[in-house]
Amino acid sequence: MLIRPAASLILAITAASYAQAQPPAPPVPPTPTEIVGAAPAADWVAIAPENLLVMDLAPAADGAARQVVIQLLPAPWSQGWVGNIRKLATAHWWDGTAITRVQDGYVVQWGDPDAEDKAKARPLPPSLLSVSQGAYTLTAGAAPALEGPRIADGIYAAQARFYHGWPIATGPGEAPETWPVHCYGTVGVGRDMPPDAGSGAELYAVIGDAPRQLDRNIAVVGRVIAGMEWLSSLPRGKGEMGFYRQTAERTPIQRVRLGDAVPGLPTWQYLSTASASFARYADARANRRDPFYVRPAGGVDICNVPVPIRQKP
Questions:
Q1: How many Å separate Cα 303 from the centre of its chain?
Q2: Of 5, 49, 95, 277, whose CB neighbour count within 10 A is largest?
C-alpha cells in the first residue's frame, strides 16, 4: 500500500521530464494575408493620384454610390494608349457614356454606345495619338530591369516577374520581349480587327479567369484597385459577346476623371514588389504551409500572386 504513492510520484516526475524533453512545437507558418498585414510601412508605395482613373457609375438601385478606381500602367509599357486615356479623362469624354457589354466570366466593357454609327459617334479629341499593335510589347533594350521573384509562366511566357507593382511576362531568348499580362481586374483597350489597336476610348475590365491568350494581342493599360464589385455584379448582356441589346440595359457612366481632379480621394498604396515582405508573400502564395493545407503546390501562376493594394492607414 505504501508503494503506490511513490510509484505515482515517479510516474508524474517521468511524465514531466518527458514533456520538458520534447522540443517546442514549430510556429504555425503565416498566411499570405498575415504576411501582408505585418509588412512595415516602409514596404508600401503610394500611388500618385494622377496615375488613377476614377469612374463614377449611376447610383445602384438602393441609392448606393458606385465608384470604380483604376490604376494606370506605368511607363514604359502602353504609354501611347495611357496618354490618350489621360487626354480623354481631362476632356470629360466619358461623361454620359455607358457600360455597353458584360460577358459572363470574361469582361465588362464601356465607352460610347454609338461608336459604330459615324453620324452619332462622339468626336474624339484631335490630340489623341495613333498607336500601333507593335506597342503591345517592348524589346529587351527598351524595357527596364524587372524585380521580385521569378515565376514560371507555363505556355504563355518563359517567366514572369514584376515592375513597380505590376506583373510583367518575359519571352524566351537572350533579348526577350516583355509585356504586361491579363489577370482578373486588368483593364485593356477595346479595338477592331487588326491592324487596328484601339485609341483608349473603349476600355474593358476582366471579370473572369485570366484570359492570357489576350496578352500581346490587346493593349493592357491598367487594373481595377477598388470598386470591382460594381463591375463584376452587373447584369450579363444577352446580345452577341455579352453586349446589351437595349439602351435601358446599359449602366450610365456619370463621369470619369483623373485622381488628382477628385477632391478627397484616399491615398492608395501597393506593396513594393522589390521588398522582402513581397518575396515572403509570393512564396506563401506558391507554397501554402498554414494548417488548412495538406501539401504545398510548389509553384503559382503569376495571376495568383495579386499585388496587395490598400488605402493608406
A1: 8
A2: 277
pLDDT tens track for 79-137: 999 999 999 999 999 999 999 999 999 999 999 999 999 999 999 999 999 999 999 99
Q: Which three cell numbers stand for residue 189?
A: 483597350
For residue 47, what are the CA distances in angstroms to 53, 73, 116, 130, 309?
Answer: 12, 11, 35, 27, 10
- CATH topology classification for 27-112+135-306: Cyclophilin (2.40.100)
**Residues contacting residue 259 through CB under 8 Å, at least 6 positions apart:** 48, 49, 50, 51, 52, 53, 54, 69, 265
In terms of phi and psi (left: phi > 0; alpha: psi -120 to 50; beta: otherwise), the region of 253 is beta
Residue 276 in this model has a pLDDT that exceeds 70:
yes
* Residue for grid cell 487596328: 196
Element (H, E) at 82: helix 79-90
Domain limits of the chain? 27-112+135-306
Write down the residue that cell numbers 488628382 correspond to.
Answer: 260
Q: How many CA atoms lie within 13 A of 142 on its CB side?
A: 14
